Amino acid sequence: MSRILIWGKFGFLSSLGTTVFAAHQVRMNILSLTFMPGQALATAATTLVGKSLGREYPEEAERCAFTSRNMGLVIGGFMALIFLFFGKYLAMLYTDDMSVAGLTATVLKIYAFAQPFQSTQFILAGGPRGAGDTRYSLYSTAAGMWIGRVLLGWLFR
After folding, report:
1. Average pLDDT, the chain
2. How far apart are CA 97 and CA 101, in angstroms?
């Protein structure tokens, strides 16, 4: 079953041509690096919220969650600016092919608008996890995947 799903994604991408497939791979390499600050802040939020609630300081738990979220927004906003203005140069770290770098830069410009919210999604899922509420993380992640990726991917195909 997983072999069919993998072929579906990569089969579709490879049918669009070598340049598109290469740009996709470069974009994924760049984006995988941008997930790290959001995931790190999510872990920090989980830990700090759990610790604060364990000490029975709910106001401190809320403050820690929102401070982590604000830090993620700043970092995500900074990364969005880099994607908007320096995406081509980031892509050129991975490839010498200017058509691949240009296509990657275009996709990074589009993704720049989602970057601050991607970090926030990780972090806002981490805070409730520290409070023991894992259902919120499940529902928000599932909604983001189905609405943000599947539905929009189908719409813009």
Report:
1. 84
2. 6
> How far, rounded to the nearest angstrom, does the alpha carbon of residue 5 sit from its chain's CA centroid?
21
Q: What are phi and psi of 56, to 5 degrees?
A: 65, 45
Residue-level pLDDT at 10: 58
Give the predicted TM-score (pTM) of the model. Answer: 0.75
**pLDDT over 80 at 130, yes or no:** yes
Q: What is the distance between the alpha carbons of residues 150 and 143, in angstroms, rounded to a whole number? A: 10
CA distance readout (Å), 58 to 20, 53, 106, 116, 149: 49, 6, 44, 26, 34
Distance CA 65, CA 49 (A): 7
Torsion of CA 86, 115, 28, 33, to 10 degrees: 80
Rounded distance between C-alpha atoms, residue 21 and residue 15, angstroms:
9
The CA-based angle 72-75-81, given to 5 degrees, is 135
Q: 157: helix, coil or strand?
A: coil
